[in-house]
Amino acid sequence: MDSRKHNRLLLGGGIAVCLLIGVTSLCLGNIHFSPIQLLQLLQGDGDSVSRSILLYARLPRTLASLAAGAALAVSGAVLQNVLANRLASPGIIGVNAGAGLGVTLACAAGTLSGLGVSWAAFGGSLITVLCIFLFSRRTNASKTTVILGGVALNSILNAVCESVTVLDTDVAMLSIDFRVGGFSAVSYPRLLPAAILILLALTALFTLCNELDVVTLGDETAQGVGLAVGKYRMVFLVLAALLAGAAVSFSGLLGFVGLIVPHFIRRFTGNESRRLLPVCAVAGAGFVTLCDLAARLLFAPYELPVGILMSVVGGPVFLYMLIRHKGGHAG
If residue 320 lies in a helix (H) or strand (E), which one and from where to where? Predict the structure, then answer.
């Protein structure tokens, strides 16, 4: 089969499955809706209680899980290409933790607006990814050392975040759900600014796929074709940080999405960014929404935070990848 046709089928199938998961997420919960009832409620029919549940609880939650999954998966794929390490991801090298610290400090300063929290998360994630980048450049560190340095930075940032919450009990109460990760408290004012940032960053990355592929080939090759390597590498790191920071601002600290999804999708698309990134976005959106749905239904009427479920799934997968790729050197 022609590779373009294969990729179109893969992307189209992924979108169909993602839409199915999204509709299922809207329909199922403590109160179930049939697809026909769902359509009626969206059109303004039905009782007011059911409409309120759909419009102000399930719809923002489903949209948030779709947006966060797409952002974190694409961010992970970009970081893996730019840092030349398949084990890089926002959660493992500290990007999520940096975003979390930014949000915690913003809450401590009294900034609770959706846009303010989103920018605080972006700032924290950007500073973290720049630290990782400078560490790898200045020390000429190996791929394994970059990951271990990111893990160490992740621990430091989490420790600082915990210190702030211990010293300020009000921030601790605000950040409990955030640190665990989940979508139960998502609202439109908090989601909308971050969703706009995610959409802008994804659009930029999809238009820069060729440049990303050239950067991935290495400095000598990129310079040989006349590409300003340093400038584009910084652009991609900023966009990856923006995606992760915006997602973390409303989803909390969700781990392993940016690791598992790109690793799985590369098996079907290869490494070409024009094929990899869109499919990663769709697969990440569907994966996180499916995990959130499972977290809601498995222990009903109680709800397991989706961040815990994803850590239970992601931890063993990360160990498997660490053994198989031996620190990221294998292809």
Answer: helix 306-325
pLDDT-derived band of residue 49, with 50, 70 and 90 as boundaries?
A: confident
Distance CA 66, CA 268 (A): 21
330 pLDDT band, cuts 50/70/90, is: very low
Cβ(26)–Cβ(38) under 8 Å? yes
Q: 234: which 2 tokens?
A: 């910084």
Two tokens, residue 314 = 């992601």
How distant is the alpha carbon of residue 152 from its chain centre? 20
CA-CA distance, 275 to 216, in Å (whole number)?
A: 15
Most distant pair of Cα atoms in the chain: their distance:
65
83: nearest Cα among 264, 280, 236: 236
Report the half-sphere exposure of 37 (CA within 13 A, side-chain side): 15
Tell me the pLDDT band of 83, cut-offs 50, 70 and 90.
confident
Closest CA to 196 of 114, 77, 282, 275: 114
CA–CA–CA angle 51, 65, 59 (5° rounding): 10
Q: What does the pLDDT read at residue 204?
A: 96
Q: What count of Cα atoms within 13 Å lies in the side-chain half-sphere of residue 46?
A: 19
Would you state the structure tokens that stand for residue 297, as one six-digit string? Answer: 């239904």
Judged by DSSP in three states, 84 sits in: coil
Count the neighbouring beta carbons within 10 Å of the beta carbon of residue 53: 17
Contact indicator for 190, 251 with CB cutoff of 8 Å? no
Write out the two tokens for 109.
């300063």
